[in-house]
Amino acid sequence: MKIRALMLAAALAGLGVTAVTAADEPQAVRQQLMKKVGKATGELSGIAKGEKPYDAEIVKASLATISETVKAFPDHFPAGSETGMETEASPKIWENMEDFKEKAAKLGGDAEKILAELPVDQAGVGAALGILGKDCSSCHETYRLKKN
Amino acid sequence: MGRRARYLFSGLLLLVVAGGSLAWWLTKPDRWEAAHWEGLGEADLANGERIFWAGGCVSCHAAPGVKDDQRLVLAGGRTLKSPFGTFYPPNISPDETVGIGNWTLAEFGDAMTRGVGKDGEHLYPSFPYGSYIRMTAKDVNDLWGFMQTLPKSGNVTPPHELAFPYNVRLALGAWKLLYLSDEPRTQVNTADTKLARGQYLVEGPGHCGECHTPRDALGGFEEGRWLAGAPNPEGEGRIPDITPSSKSIGGWSASDIASYLETGFTPDFDTVGGSMVEVQKNMAELPASDRDAIAAYLKALPAL
Fold first, then answer.
1. B234 touching chain A per CB within 8 A
2. Taking Cα atoms as reference points, which of B237, B87, B208 lies closest to residue A142?
3. Between chains, do A42 and B277 touch, taking CB under 8 Å as contact?
4. How far is B33 from chain A (nearest CA, A)?
5. Is residue B61 included in any domain, yes or no?
6. Is pLDDT at B240 greater than 70 in this prediction?
7. Which residues on adjacent β-strands are paired with residue B221?
8. Shortest alpha-carbon distance between residue A7 and chain B (Å)
9. Which residues pair with A75 in a beta bridge?
10. Are residues B44 and B156 in the same domain?
């Protein structure tokens, strides 16, 4: 009985350890970063579509989040993280790492520039979203694979 | 050789010739009768441009990596990888020598909707005439008119690189016999003009099924799997299921779909990726009513 309990405890502990490491894996980290960018984009889109009132603080915070997050994004593609954990990263990232980094930097730079100018109304946010969205898709075009 | 043997031999020969002729006749390039392309009048250039964007000509026929106005130069030069080999979409700019500037409307129309080239040869279905066959003669005429207004290019593209037996153009006649049809891909309520328009755009000029429908070993669409998603012909990953049964986009509303086609953003603020990036740019050029019609049609597809 005791042995069983011990084994169970060990198994549970093992599960816990796996869960912790899984969240730290680069594949999981970059998925989280992209979700963060998506969430910030969603805030901007709500304003652009007129579903939410224009709020300068939200616009600032969202643009800052996008800029900061995406600048750190390419740091999470070390060798060995090409596959696994349902990654949608294309092998082309590792073949053209410089171009991949440039594309991320383009989005980061554009978000920073827009933040400095700060769109002042709904239409301004819409125009900003158009620029940022093109940056997103120009990278997803080559470097993101859909699996389902 | 005895008399009987001679009879037998001649009989066999006759059979082979008859069989061969029948096969040739069944699979020969089949143009429209000339009248199909007559009396269409002046092209409506605005409609021609609309069809041009719906048809996605740019996605395959613009030079690789070009942006903005340069996308209107249909110089060719991209590669289209497939399990059968590599296709090189040709120069279809109005250049008279290396483009299609000296083609007639009938020649252009037969290529678009019959898969027959200028010299009467079968074209490969990598050029999606299996979808374009559903296009009206008026839309083809308007499109042809619009394409004449585009810039010329002197670019010469290489011939397709295909392995045997796929390099035998004659065999494409058999492929057409098996798969080429202008029947609707699925049943929707066509009394609803929006759904009818959506069906026309998706099944015809939009040629969505060419990537989103899985193919059998001979490159025809699998039965009962219309728009159900398929392996990416160009490598890893998948082209998604876009029916209401889809795990990824089945839950999108019609306005989510229309908005995605317009802006490239998904409802959860991911963006368009892969070869759909080019498609979305084209869809963004359409009037909102066309994107709404496409969305309505996709939502109306029967569940799988």
1. no
2. B237
3. no
4. 42
5. yes
6. yes
7. B215
8. 38
9. none
10. yes
Q: Does A28 touch chain B (CB under 8 A)?
A: no
Give the model confidence (pLDDT) of A60-117 as tens digits.
999 999 999 999 999 999 999 998 888 999 999 999 999 999 999 999 999 999 999 9
Residues of chain A in contact with residue B237, where contact means CB-CB under 8 angstroms, are 88, 90, 145-147
Does pLDDT of B83 surpass 80? yes
Q: Choose among A51, A46, A74, A73: nearest CA to A62.
A: A46
CATH topology of domain A26-143: Four Helix Bundle (Hemerythrin (Met), subunit A) (1.20.120)
Cis omega (within 30 of 0) for bond into B165? yes
Residue B119, chain A, CB below 8 Å: the answer is no
User: Residue ranges of the domains in chain A?
Assistant: 26-143
Residue where a domain stops, chosen among B160, B182, B204: B182
Q: Decide if B49 is inside a domain.
A: yes
The total number of structural domains that make up chain B: 2
B241 and B103 in one domain? no
Instruction: Domain of residue B232: give its range.
Output: 184-304
B280 contacts in A (CB within 8 Å)?
137
Best residue of B255, B265, B281, B282 to probe chain A, by most A CBs closer than 10 Å:
B265
Alpha carbon distances (Å) from B249 to B197, B207, B242, B256, B259? 21, 19, 6, 9, 13
The phi, psi pair for B149, rounded to 5°, reads -85, -5
Question: Who has greater pLDDT, B10 or B66?
Answer: B66
Statement: residue A11 has pLDDT above 60: no
pTM exceeds cut of 0.90: no
| Cβ-Cβ contacts under 8 Å, A140 against chain B | 271-274, 277
Helices and strands (H, E) in chain A, number of each type: 6, 0
ipTM: 0.78
Of B268, B272, B278, the CB nearest to A140: B272
